[in-house]
C-alpha cells in the first residue's frame, strides 16, 4: 500500500505542475468479481465478495493518457473449505476519456497489463530480509480491458459505474482465466480551467 500511496502522490504533483495542460483523476470505489461459467483447470470459481478499488489516471494529450488501479477482496475467502485467501488485482493501462457532448459526462475506455496476486494465509510466519508475512502469494501476469461512464454530479466530483475484464495467464488456482470486476467509484478530476 505504501508503493501505491507514493505513486498517487507523485501523480498528484505532476498533475498540479501541469494543471493548465493536463487532467488528473483519482477515485475510490467498490465492486465485486463475477466469472463466466468455465470449466478451467482450477477447482473453484473466483466469485463474489466486496472488492475495494483505488485508481488514478493522468490525461496527457487531451483525451488520452495513462492510469493505474489496484483492487483487492475486502475480506478473506476460504479456498476449498480449508485455506483462507485474498485475490489482489494490479493494472497499468492506457486510457481514452472523451467527453460525451457535455462537461457533465465522459466515457472512459482502457486497456493495459497487470497481475493477479492471490495471497494464501497460513498459521505461521515466513521471514526473509524484507520482513515477515503470514501468507504465500501466487502471482500471475494479466492484461485488462474495461470502461466506465464518468458522471459529474457537482463541479469536478464524479460517480463512475465501471467494469473490468482481466485475462489472467495460467490461473491454475481457479476455474477461469477471465474474471470480471463490476462496481462504482467516486472520484475527483483536477482539470484545466476552460
Explain this structure to me?
The chain is mainly beta. It has a single domain (2-190), classed as Porin, CATH 2.40.160.20. It is 8% helix and 64% strand. It has 1 helix and 10 strands, in the order αββββββββββ. The chain has one helix spanning 2-17, and strands at 23-34, 51-61, 64-72, 77-79, 83-96, 99-102, 105-128, 131-154, 157-168, 180-190.
Quaternary structure annotation: single chain
Unreliable residue stretches? none
Q: Count structural domains.
A: 1
Strand order of the largest sheet: 1-2-3-5-7-8-9-10
- Rounded to the nearest angstrom, the distance between the terminal CA atoms is 35 Å
Question: Can you summarize the main beta sheet?
Answer: 8 strands, antiparallel, barrel
CATH class: Mainly Beta
- Backbone shape: elongated
Summarize the helix and strand pattern as letters. HEEEEEEEEEE
Strand % is over 45%
**What integer value in Å does the Rg equal?**
18 Å
Q: Number of helical segments?
A: 1
If you average the pLDDT, what whole number results? 86
What CATH calls the topology is Porin
Structural class: mainly beta
The portion of residues assigned to helices is under 10%
Query: What CATH architecture would you give?
Result: Beta Barrel
Number of strands: 10
